[in-house]
Write a structure and sequence with these properties.
Shape: globular
Number of strands: 11
Order of helices and strands: EEEEEEEEEEE
Radius of gyration: 13 Å
Helix content: under 10%
Distance between the termini: 37 Å
Number of helices: 0
């Protein structure tokens, strides 16, 4: 099982960012994908979960107004989009497939003017 994420992003405050996570080695539609982030010096923070087969989502309350998870079953790719970025959104963003304990390599998102 592999999860390969898109590259680092630099954004201005107030902008949006979309990170991708391409999964392989298992049936993409059969298992949930979680999104987690880790800010500098902080622990992992769970953002939410998507069920790729029907696009059903669950968002952590902290993020539900600014985050959207999507999944493209034709390419086995999950996406997280975060809007109205702030400096405290600067973090490493990870996808993972809990069923396989498999994580992406992480995507650094930096929000700075």
């Amino acid at each position: 099982v592999q999860m390969v994420q898109s590259g680092a992003e630099l954004r201005n405050p107030g902008a949006s960012v979309k990170v991708s996570c391409k999964a392989s080695g298992y049936m993409f539609t059969s298992y949930d994908i979680d999104w987690v982030r880790q800010a500098p010096g902080q622990g992992h923070e769970w953002m939410g979960r998507i069920d790729p087969i029907d696009g059903g989502t669950k968002y952590a309350q902290k993020f539900q107004d600014r985050v959207t998870f999507t999944a493209d079953t034709s390419t086995s790719t999950a996406y997280v989009e975060l809007t109205s970025l702030r400096s405290d959104d600067t973090a490493m963003y990870y996808c993972n497939a809990p069923r396989f304990a498999s994580w992406g390599q992480g995507t650094q998102v930096t929000v700075s003017s």
